[in-house]
Please model this.
Amino acid sequence: MGLEKKCALLEDLIEKCGGCAVVDGGFATQLEIHGAAINDPLWSAVSLIKSPELIKRVHMEYLEAGADIVVTSSYQATIPGFISRGLSIEESESLLQKSVELAVEARDKFWDKVSKVSGHSYNRALVAASIGSYGAYLADGSEYSGNYGEDVSLDKLKDFHRRRLQVLVEAGPDLLAFETIPNKLEAQACVELLEEENVQIPAWICFTSVDGEKAPSGESFEECLEPLNKSNNIYAVGINCAPPQFIENLIRKFSKLTKKAIVVYPNSGEVWDGKAKKWLPSQCFGDDEFEMFATKWRDLGAKLIGGCCRTTPSTIKAISRDLKRR
Ligand SMILES: C[S+](C)CC[C@H](N)C(=O)O
Ligand SMILES: N[C@@H](CCS)C(=O)O
Ligand SMILES: [Zn+2]
Model:
């Protein structure tokens, strides 16, 4: 299936949802709720090695909550990351492939079950392969600073992303989700790579923001979106894992800067301490607040809305209930 047909699948889904599809919530958060130990350089991707069944369970929980799109467990899964754990290249690539398979299996199993129930309100979900930023791989919280150092060039970022992208694409997801991109250079690397590799799967690129105005690097979103707006591979652009109170302003800003669909899936408002590897308490938003926010974000034009870290299936249930109240 070519790029146009895959884009049409996503467009159909958004239409079936009444104009705004629901993305799932914090994947790592739900793993932890089930007791997974992810204080690890591979973070949530450590579960691909240790507990693949749990990954499937978490996908199922988000599907049951009403997610129309599930994001795979590959955010911090990288070939060099797995190799530094003693795995071979072949084993590393097969874990990346597995991340897509687990989500596809969960989606198919769930859809097989609910599609037989008359009057159900679910849609057949799509699977988005997560591609975390270079900063996520560094595991030092630099996805929130954008500070990759002087020696990180466009080519280095493309080299970092290339093989993982090829393997994930080969595994056949419906979408690609570039997550927590903190600067223009990496956004540009991702776009150029999609083109160079002739990828036929629509992608979204989401940035983080720590001030609600700019990318973490200090670059304006006008600059950051410039290479994305020109690309046919990019279906949507937006923000993930930033605090929810920033989102309204950022949707307004993005609507002036792009014709692409807008995707937002903020975290709960807590702040990641990259050194201590834990979430610090901060102004934190619960499910009821997310439900109210979701209506507002939809009315402002967002086409894909969900939650990121520290949100759970109950958050997604609240968002889904709200957005699908027709
Ligand atoms: C989205 S952050 C909470 C993921 C974890 C981070 N890359 C780290 O390893 O510290
Ligand atoms: N999708 C990621 C989080 C991105 S910040 C995960 O939970 O593994
Ligand atoms: Zn997150």
Summary: The longest strand covers residues 126-132. The two ends are 32 Å apart (CA to CA). Residues 241, 267, 308-309 surround zinc ion (ligand 3) (CB under 6 Å).
